[in-house]
């Protein structure tokens, strides 16, 4: 197992902190698996970025009152989803692009995704990632990441 300094673990843990508040401007709603340390780490990173306060974060591993008629709790746990402020539901690569477009430091990635074929390639990569997510999540936990609902 890799040795990590106390500072490394503090930085990693700080990036895992996901706010439970709603956004200031009624921005996109991000549905994430709070039982997954890797997912919580990534969402914590987005939440800590400039513009993260414009995102709403919903941990779908907990009882969620209403996800909408077009999103079941099971589907939300299996795949990443974002609901735009106009009500449209995006999943997979398109959901990530919506987040990137909201965060000023990530807009470069959203612009690259607009190149024809790039979002399709990102979706393919995302589908390859999904089966290995549990293993990567275990590795993230060993590095100090914690699930949102394990605090």
From TrEMBL:
Give one Pfam hit by family name.
DCC1-like
The UniProt transmembrane annotation reads none
Q: Which domain of life is it from?
A: Bacteria
Question: From the UniProt record, which GO molecular function terms apply?
Answer: protein-disulfide reductase activity
Q: Which InterPro entries match?
A: DCC1-like, DCC1_Trx
Report what the protein is called: Thiol-disulfide oxidoreductase DCC
Gene source species? Ruegeria atlantica
């Amino acid at each position: 197992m890799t040795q990590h300094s106390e500072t490394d673990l503090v930085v990693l843990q700080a990036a895992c902190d996901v706010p439970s508040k709603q956004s200031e401007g009624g921005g996109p709603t991000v549905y994430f698996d709070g039982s997954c340390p890797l997912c919580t780490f990534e969402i914590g990173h987005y939440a800590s970025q400039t513009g993260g306060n414009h995102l709403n974060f919903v941990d779908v591993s907990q009882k969620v009152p209403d996800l909408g008629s077009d999103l079941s709790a099971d589907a939300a746990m299996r795949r990443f989803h974002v609901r735009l402020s106009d009500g449209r539901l995006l999943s997979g690569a398109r959901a990530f692009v919506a987040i990137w477009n909201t965060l000023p430091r990530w807009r470069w990635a959203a612009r690259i995704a607009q190149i024809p074929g790039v979002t399709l390639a990102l979706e393919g990569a995302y589908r390859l990632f999904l089966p290995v997510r549990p293993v990567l999540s275990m590795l993230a936990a060993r590095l100090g990441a914690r699930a949102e609902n394990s605090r």
